[in-house]
Structures are given as structure tokens and as C-alpha cells.
UniProtKB/TrEMBL annotation:
Protein name in UniProt: Uncharacterized protein
UniProt record, GO biological process: iron-sulfur cluster assembly
Keyword annotations: 2Fe-2S, Iron, Iron-sulfur, Metal-binding
InterPro entries recorded: FSCA_dom_sf, NIF_FeS_clus_asmbl_NifU_C, Rieske_2Fe-2S, Rieske_2Fe-2S_sf
Keyword Ribonucleoprotein: no
GO molecular function (one): monooxygenase activity
Pfam families (alphabetical): NifU
Transmembrane domains' residue ranges: none
Function in brief: May be involved in the formation or repair of [Fe-S] clusters present in iron-sulfur proteins.
Organism: Mycobacterium parmense
Length: 290
């Protein structure tokens, strides 16, 4: 059982860029000359590994580049060095496929209409096109997946069905960030990868109490709060996709955004695999004086 160790290693490599930048910034304290030497050293190392990766791709046989591109970490290196075998349209399309299970849990979907230059045009379907959390869905799931798969994309536009025109991603995020919450942060949660089918478990991640459950081959995460009895969901049981509160007995459908027949739904938390690591998107509440 080496999966937890593998996920931890992937999380470590995901933050490698931040650590390199921190080291470069520390070199700046020794003066411009020291900083420039450190920057040149990093550039030489990156160039060396890029040349080695290019040679591997050139001498590989049997679609080696295609197989390498299936690994998130290696795919990111291929992108950096311009060696990725797929064009931007294919990468954006594949990115949307990866987030469809999350959108489906909210009763929605997304269509890729067009990739023109550095702009992607999308259209939401189902409940996503009218749900108040569409902005959250765009920023936390769709946009993150597209940016990771195609960093050359400069803007994302959402085509509406109620009126002509497009809604820029920036306008949706402006509304999102004006709702009394601080910026969104992704929190790696490799422990979610250990859940078994039918299992329910509580976690505290980023200071937030959460409840995770695995229905079939999908994992869902919600805030640990029952809107009916205003209490914790600790001790809840899962039957199929129905999560039953142990106190009030109300059933919530975890595969349909936590919906209940006669009650308010649970509050879902976006869960995506980032570089192979299950990660949660959480926003911090701003203080009263913020």
C-alpha cells in the first residue's frame, strides 16, 4: 500500500516551483549579483533537464510521448518545454472531461464551444447554467483544470442561454470575492484517496470541519453541518448515494449536490485531482473589520 506515499510525493513536487522562487528571493538579500547568478543557475538546470526530456521523447517508440502525457507531473514538464503531444484544444477538452464528475454531482455539465487564440468559450448545461454557485464552479473547478492543462489560455468566456453575449470569467470571480469571503485556496487532501466504497469519514482541513463519503467510485465532500437539525453530521451513514443524518434522519443525495426531498441541501466543497492528489477548494471568511 504505497498510494499515500505516492500522493505525498506528488504534492511535494507541485509546490517545488514555489520553493525555488523562495530560494531565489532569499538570494536577492545578498545583492543583485548573487540573485542573478542564482537565476542563471536555475535557468541552466531547467534547460539541461528540458534537453534531456526532449531527447527521451525523440528516441522513444510506440507512442512514448502519449503515455508520458497521461502523468500530470510529466505533462506539466512537457508543457514547459513545448514537448506536449496534444494541441491546446485537445488539452482543454481533456481537462473538462476530468471535471465532469464534479459538475455532474451538481446536476450540470459544460460544453467546449471554441478555442480561439488564447480564449476559451464555454456553455454550462443543466443546473449549472442557473445555479447561484455557477461562479464558484467556474473558478474552482473548470478554470483551474483549464489553466493547469493549457497555461497559454488567457481568458475564459461563458456563453449564456438567456441572453446573447458572454460573461467574462473575471466578472464571475468579482461577484464571488464580494460575498464576504477571502481568497480561495486549494488544500491537498491525500487521505481522501484512502476512502473505500460506502465509507463516511470526518476531516478538518484548513480549519474547516468536513464530511467525506465515497459512493461507488466517486468521492464527495460537504461541510459538516446538517441544515435541518443545525448539528454535526458525525456518525452519518451512506446507503447508495443517500447520506442519512444520525440525529434528524433526513436523507441527502450526495450525488446531486447534497439535495434533500423536503429540506435545504448540504453545502458541497469542490474536490478535484490536482497532479494526482485529491484537493479541496476552501474559502476563508473575512473578519468583521476586513
Amino acid at each position: 500500500m504505497d498510494r499515500p506515499e505516492t500522493l505525498e510525493t506528488q504534492t511535494q513536487w507541485r509546490t517545488a516551483g514555489d520553493r525555488i522562487q523562495t530560494l531565489l528571493d532569499s538570494c536577492a538579500a545578498s545583492g543583485p549579483a548573487a540573485y542573478e547568478r542564482a537565476r542563471q543557475l536555475v535557468a541552466e538546470v531547467v534547460g539541461l533537464y528540458g534537453a534531456g526530456l526532449e531527447r527521451i521523447v525523440e528516441i522513444g517508440e510506440g507512442g512514448l510521448a502519449e503515455r508520458l502525457a497521461t502523468d500530470d507531473l510529466v505533462a506539466s514538464l512537457l508543457l514547459v518545454h513545448g514537448l506536449h503531444p496534444h494541441d491546446v484544444h485537445r488539452r482543454v477538452s481533456d481537462a473538462l472531461e476530468r471535471v465532469r464528475p464534479y459538475l455532474g454531482s451538481h446536476g450540470g455539465d459544460v460544453d467546449l464551444l471554441e478555442v480561439r487564440g488564447d480564449t476559451v468559450r464555454l456553455a454550462f448545461e443543466g443546473s449549472c447554467k442557473s445555479c447561484p454557485s455557477s461562479a464558484v464552479t467556474l473558478e474552482l473547478a473548470v478554470e483551474d483544470a483549464i489553466r493547469a492543462a493549457a497555461p497559454e489560455i488567457g481568458s475564459i468566456e461563458v456563453v449564456t442561454t438567456e441572453r446573447t453575449g458572454m460573461i467574462p470569467a473575471e466578472s464571475l470571480m468579482a461577484h464571488l470575492h464580494s460575498d464576504g469571503h477571502g481568497p480561495t485556496e486549494w488544500h491537498p487532501a491525500p487521505e481522501l484517496g484512502e476512502l473505500r466504497a460506502g465509507e463516511v469519514a470526518g476531516f478538518v482541513i484548513g480549519g474547516t470541519a468536513l464530511l467525506a463519503c465515497r459512493a461507488g467510485d466517486q468521492t464527495f465532500v460537504y461541510r459538516d453541518h446538517c441544515p435541518v437539525c443545525d448539528d454535526t453530521l458525525a456518525g452519518a451513514t451512506l446507503l447508495g448515494t443517500l447520506l442519512r443524518c444520525p440525529r434528524c434522519g433526513v436523507d441527502f443525495d450526495v450525488a446531486r449536490a447534497g439535495a434533500a426531498a423536503t429540506a435545504a441541501p448540504l453545502v458541497p466543497v469542490p474536490l478535484l485531482s490536482r497532479d494526482g492528489v485529491p484537493s479541496l477548494a476552501l474559502r476563508e471568511a473575512l473578519g468583521a473589520d476586513a
